[in-house]
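Morning. Coffee machine broken again, so started the prediction first thing and wrote up yesterday's gels while waiting. Chain of 286 residues, entered below exactly as on the submission form.
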Amino acid sequence: MPELPEVEVVRRGLQRWVSGRTIAEVEVLHPRAVRRHLAGGEDFAARLKGRTAGDASRRGKYLWLPVAETDMSVLAHLGMSGQLLIQAEDAQDEKHLRIRVRFDDVLGTELRFVDQRTFGGLSLHENAPGGLPDVIAHIARDPLDPLFDDAAFHTALRARRTTIKRALLDQSLISGVGNIYADEALWRARLHYERPTATLTRPRSAELLGHVREVMTAALAVGGTSFDSLYVNVNGESGYFERSLDAYGREDQPCRRCGTPMRRRPWMNRSSYFCPRCQRAPRTVS
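Came back before lunch.
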């Protein structure tokens, strides 16, 4: 699933190509693409017709477009394979095209939501105080947000009876971090993924946050991580941070720091990649 850098790349594309444009027509081609809009596809399309898209916004892995002069926003959830693409109006339809948005102008481009696995979708929601769609009002700020509270994050970590990777993936505690960037930050911080959060000192949690920010900023600079053609920007271009990964996906390859073969362990229906020498397991972890 796309994480903060990949979603931010898409947000920037929407801001450039969609924000400020007036919607002429919305065509819903697959009902699952609007299943989170409980009133259905026809209602979704009718509510957006003639409306102007506001500034593209993001909180963690979620992005949305406010609908100008209303208290509503279009929330986009990319799921496992969702793509928001800007295409020429006469471009051939993608095989898995689910929603088409045409605009009332002469730019000659349209917005397309393409989703092979149909886990993602678009939906229209009321805004909560602060401008977030109400369904994501509980999502925490992300570490690249200037208003992210480092001290509060450390306090919450110490109070949780959990392990550090679980905490990093808890979107109510810190948003935008997924499996890839958690493994990368933990490798840089020399922390095992099962390290209890209660054992982290304030300097160690500050160091970890610094590594989270560094790895995400580096990924964002090169368009994010694209292991296949599914994770792309609005122009269909892949990012290439996978070439710079130090931990994720590097099972049996030498650690870039000490040369020890990297390991992979099953973890919460995912995998965790780590160096057994640099990231010593807590004594309770075999």
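The first strand starts at residue 23 and ends at 28. Going to sketch it on the whiteboard this afternoon.
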